[in-house]
């Protein structure tokens, strides 16, 4: 078994799979991709509704939990992270969402690097995109769209790439009514959430192919990487720590990693570079275990401090959604169908025959982006609307017909931490998001719940007689609603920022604008972090596709030695 490579990538998740594809395309570069989880040959990964059986399953999930959170009135949340080839793209909600142009323009300002601005990021989104609309028209002679429409669309979207984007294969009357109600409340309809401003209401597009989940393992590893002799993949291989040496000049250099494999402990060496793509939880944990992190934290756990980096594990940001549930009458929802054996049989048969229906569902089907109140300068909240309801994720659906309108603050000002609890890599770190810890976030939560009520009160939904089941109409004041948000809100699994990039001189900037790790007196040679942890500020939407964009950009820099 070879233990020397040019490039070692730690984590075969969203970013790691794309990086492996791009870097191993150079036949002279020996690339090792290391994944702690197993192969993505578990059938529930590929059936879209299978996220229900992947989250909370040690076969595919790290099974993290947050620390008890004051903002959630002392509650602790399940915190899924993919532990399998494809990482979170194998267990997530499959929603294709870039965010807003202003997100990337802000990154450019925070890092001082214009290559992160929207216009510079757009080609990196398009480079791997395979959008169904362009694919259908260019290759299948589909005449539904005018040439002018297609020309405009092709300026923003790509075709022929590895990352498949399709429309969903189902619709619901109750969701159509919610979309109409949102328009009556002043939210415009949209057919494209990914053009730079995602304001509007419409059905989400998803990363699926003909009714199957499309994860990054299928998109970027097979068959391209697996057929290349210069590419090596290790699964069920957990990195214990990075091997970092202090050179005579005082500069640090990452030379490889210590890996626990099924054959025992192995020290692997990188002649060029180690790329950490272990995610917003795994990457800061590995840096801390390797001596790069807050000095006091490392000393507390008996780890020699190679570089006091207070930003490692700081700046944790996440999207917290508040779930409002409304009982309805006279309309079909999934609650009744999924609670009967006949309904379940019909669902299974439809998927078997057509690859459509509830088994092809993303966790959320309808989306909306708008302002929590008129003073907001841009859309600052996102709705995920589902034709179902339950007490909590993983629990049975309610026995009554209902829909859920979940709303999240896209730009939270609350900040949390990820910190090791032990020098043992097998001990999960302490994840403390500190949700709703600022007055601004509590106000957005209260305003969002009021806006949800305003949408549901519109004429389009009146025929279904919606009744608020959660949080309950008795709660009206800002204080009531903020407290209730703490009781019923859950994460939508978008942790970012824990190894943030930033300008030189920023003490909390772990990375430079090319995602290279900072060290004493300069950079840690041969070490980069490429995953959602590098985001300085969370994007205004789901975070999977922005992570792919970052990996696309980073791959070019790595190949150019920049």
From TrEMBL:
It comes from the Bacteria. Keywords: FAD, Flavoprotein. The keyword Flavoprotein applies. Its cofactor is FAD. Transmembrane segments: none annotated. Pfam families: GMC_oxred_C, GMC_oxred_N. Belongs to the GMC oxidoreductase family. This is Alcohol dehydrogenase [acceptor]. The lineage of its organism: Bacteria, Pseudomonadati, Pseudomonadota, Betaproteobacteria, Burkholderiales.
